[in-house]
Amino acid sequence: MRANLKKARMDAGLTQQQVADKLGISLRHYKFIEAGNTVGRVELWDALEDLFGIHQRVLREVEGH
After folding, report:
1. Which pLDDT value is given to residue 65?
2. Of the candidates 12, 20, 29, 54, which lies 20 to 30 Å from 42 by C-alpha distance?
3. DSSP per residue over 19-32, as a string?
4. What pTM did the predictor assign?
């Protein structure tokens, strides 16, 4: 689980679907990213960093690793 990514999304008041729409990806793909099951493209992390104003290294952290 990428707790920092989930917290950033929730603090922004966005659903997983809304973030997926902003990124132009499927809900399923976004859920995999947030769950830590896939990394995703660099461009997605750049967009997430811009969206949430948090460095992508922080957003990419996976709990327990």
Report:
1. 59
2. 12
3. HHHHHTS-HHHHHH
4. 0.93
